[in-house]
Write a structure and sequence with these properties.
Strands 4-3-2-5-6 form a five-stranded mixed β-sheet. It has a four-stranded antiparallel β-sheet with strand order 8-18-19-9, with helices on one face. A four-stranded antiparallel β-sheet has the order 11-16-12-15. It is built from 15 helices and 19 strands. The two termini are 21 Å apart. Helix 9 packs parallel to helix 12. The protein is of the alpha+beta class.
């Protein structure tokens, strides 16, 4: 495991840029916050998770500094966590202290579950990838080309509404539950791929729904090269494959006409299933992977872990980590496993995005268990009700909303109640209970 640090902390730049020199605060896990001017002021034995993005760290020459990590170290960005926890109005030193506690706990939980001696410098998902990720097929091979075309980690949607006085925020699927579900899914292996002739397909492959039904019932890890002739309007805008998904030409800003390439050449069965219900799809080619595999990874099964905010961050990184290369760079591995896992996630998010769109919200993007919306003033008051009905969570930064009464049988509702009530003491308590359970499991291993 590359570049491990023995301690962890959070360093917040006042405007989120590493060039900020005044008003920056840092806090090591379970220590007191302190002010700093530049990265050189931060103790070198500690890994500092910053609120700067990777691009800014690169411009500042800090991206190769082993003690400095960008805001996406936990996949969910620091800015998103601040929204979820509802601490955006706090002073920066208070934010640093709270985030150091939450993320320090999460890093320690990940270290225990993954059996690491120290904290990985390139992110938790990358550490999971090094241990459990699947190698890419040889570049240029048929399997690689199909996997590359079938992979898509999230979707930015075509937008038409423009609201004033609207709130922009993200709903998210309860990370513990969503990770638990995805980690139990069988995933296609990437060692071999066999083409299927039209004669071997139901109705010669002309009936897409019949092909989907056949592959699903036969439990086949199927991939298809497709042509989209048309999609139902809302789904088309949400999937946003480029103009080719709706029509074959588009125009540039100065009016020049060009052919718009349909970006969905290959897709996995979970995506083909959704497409078959949403438009006019033609199957051009079918291939089936050589078999199924399971990662052997799972979330730690306990009630405290299911309610722990810190452990929920770890849980998200477990499934996302399966899409990473088993190498120190931690980049996404273009293989059939990744394409399938990403499709399961995106298609589930798409179905939720459709429902949110029908309430009057505009969808900005979705994927990684999250749907980002523009919510008009007329809809904002029913956000808690929508979240409850759809099994989603919403950020506690949305003020003035009437929270729903949680059902204690659902861990995510309990966590939502703690977040919306600003009950940070009990959030910390659940983290401590979960951490103790993981420590006990590690000692007994």
């Amino acid at each position: 495991m590359s570049s491990l640090a023995p301690k962890i902390g959070v360093a917040l730049y006042i405007k989120g840029h590493p060039f900020d020199k005044e008003g920056n605060w840092a806090c090591e896990f379970r220590k007191e916050p302190f002010q700093f001017v530049s990265a050189s002021d931060l103790p070198s034995q500690t890994l500092w998770i910053t609120n700067a993005d990777l691009g800014d760290l690169m411009r500042a020459g800090l991206h190769k500094n082993p003690k400095i990590a960008h805001e996406g170290y936990f996949r969910t960005r620091i800015s998103q966590m601040i929204q979820e926890l509802g601490i955006g109005e706090w002073s920066l030193d208070q934010q640093a202290s709270m985030l150091a506690e939450m993320l320090g706990c999460a890093a320690e939980m990940a270290r225990l579950q993954l059996g690491l001696t120290q904290y990985p410098s390139n992110g938790i998902a990358q550490a999971v990838g090094q241990l459990y990720g699947v190698q890419e097929p040889a570049e240029g091979s048929t399997i690689y080309q199909i996997a590359e075309r079938a992979c898509q980690n999230y979707t930015s949607c075509e937008r038409e509404r423009r609201y004033e006085q609207a709130k922009i925020f993200s709903f998210w699927l309860p990370r513990y539950d969503w990770s638990s579900k995805l980690l139990l899914e069988p995933l296609p292996t990437s060692e071999s791929l066999k083409g299927v002739s039209p004669h071997a397909l139901p109705n010669m492959g002309r009936d897409v729904a019949a092909v989907v039904k056949w592959a699903t019932e036969s439990k086949l890890p199927l991939f298809a090269r497709i042509r989209i002739h048309g999609l139902e309007e809302v789904v088309g805008k949400l999937m946003n494959y480029g103009a080719g998904a709706q029509n074959v030409t588009s125009s540039t800003a100065d009016g020049a006409i060009y052919d718009a390439r349909n970006m969905r050449e290959w897709c996995s069965l979970p995506e083909l299933d959704v497409l078959s219900q949403a438009g006019d799809i033609e199957i051009l080619q079918v291939a089936i992977a050589g078999g199924w595999a399971r990662s052997g990874l799972d979330v730690f099964k306990s009630k405290p872990c299911a309610v722990s905010y810190s452990y929920s961050l770890v849980a998200e990184n477990l499934w996302v980590g399966l899409t990473r290369k088993p190498s120190p760079d931690g980049k996404t591995s273009k293989n059939l496993t990744t394409a399938w896992l990403q499709a399961l996630d995106r298609m589930h998010c798409l179905r939720i995005a459709e429902k949110l769109h029908s309430t009057g919200m505009e969808i900005i993007n979705y994927g990684y268990g999250r749907i980002t919306v523009v919510c008009p003033k007329s809809v904002i008051q029913i956000v808690p009700q929508i979240a409850r009905e759809m099994g989603l969570m919403y950020p506690s930064s949305l003020q003035g909303l009437e929270p729903y009464t949680p059902n204690s049988a659902h861990a995510f509702m309990v966590m939502q109640s703690l977040l919306c009530g600003g009950d940070h003491n009990n959030l910390r308590r659940m983290n401590q209970l979960a951490l103790r359970e993981l420590e006990g499991a590690r000692r007994g291993a």
